């Protein structure tokens, strides 16, 4: 079920399915400089958050980390922060990644379903950033989960799959507490 907050900017209603904190796992192709012999991809964990403050954009934050063979956090992969806007069905995203890359993405919402296709329009990199010339992303809300897939291109390689994940919406217990009214001070009376 997609909830639309009453204080959400009216223009952002088509992006309401993104709101919240999402957690899950996926698979990432590793960069050549991070890859050891026979190691071309890794499993990763992710937490992504989409929030709003009443203005005409969503604020986005994502952290990913490699998972070891037991599924535990091993080391950080990427951190992204950005802002998502929508006008009519056109989506605009400005994003900065910890590797020293700033991107502008454009795309559109699919007709009749919560899905967004994005492609890079402009990229700026610091000199030490990994090679990168463009990307594509697809986000979709499927059976209550947020699924996404990303492709990347470099000067030496055409667009190819880079990352994908399936994320589940997580609930912050502080949200539940805010909804509880008139609890007894000692907590014990609640169970009587």
Give the overall silhouette: globular
Give the averaged pLDDT, no decimals. 89
Assembly type of the chains comes to: single chain
How would you sum up the major sheet? 10 strands, antiparallel, barrel
- First and last CA, distance: 34 Å
Task: Assess the beta-strand content as a share of residues.
Answer: over 45%
Strand order of the largest sheet: 1-2-3-4-5-6-7-8-9-10
> Which class do the helix and strand fractions yield?
mainly beta
Query: What is the number of beta strands?
Result: 10
SSE order, as H and E?
EEEEEEEEEEH
Low-confidence stretches: 32-39
Rg from C-alpha positions? 19 Å
Folded structure, characterized:
The chain has one helix at residues 173-179; strands spanning 20-29, 41-51, 58-67, 73-87, 90-97, 101-109, 115-125, 134-142, 145-153, 160-170. The chain is built from one helix and ten strands; from the N terminus they run ββββββββββα. Helix content is 4%, strand content 54%. By secondary structure, the protein is mostly beta strands.
């Amino acid at each position: 079920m997609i909830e639309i907050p009453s204080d959400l900017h009216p223009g952002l209603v088509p992006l309401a399915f993104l709101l919240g904190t999402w957690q899950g796992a996926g698979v990432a192709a590793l960069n050549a400089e991070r890859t050891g012999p026979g190691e071309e991809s890794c499993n990763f964990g992710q937490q992504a958050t989409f929030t709003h403050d009443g203005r005409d954009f969503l604020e986005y934050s994502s952290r990913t980390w490699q998972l070891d063979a037991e599924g535990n956090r091993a080391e950080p992969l990427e951190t992204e922060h950005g802002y998502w806007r929508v006008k009519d069905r056109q989506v605009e995203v400005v994003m900065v990644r910890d590797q020293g890359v700033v991107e502008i993405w454009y795309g559109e919402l699919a007709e009749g379903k919560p899905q967004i296709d994005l492609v890079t329009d402009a990229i700026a990199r610091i000199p030490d950033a990994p090679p990168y010339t463009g990307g594509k992303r697809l986000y979709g809300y499927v059976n209550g989960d947020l699924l996404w897939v990303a492709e990347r291109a470099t000067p030496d390689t055409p667009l190819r799959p880079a990352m994908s994940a399936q994320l589940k919406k997580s609930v912050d217990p502080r949200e539940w507490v805010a909804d509880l009214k008139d609890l007894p001070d000692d907590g014990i009376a609640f169970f009587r």
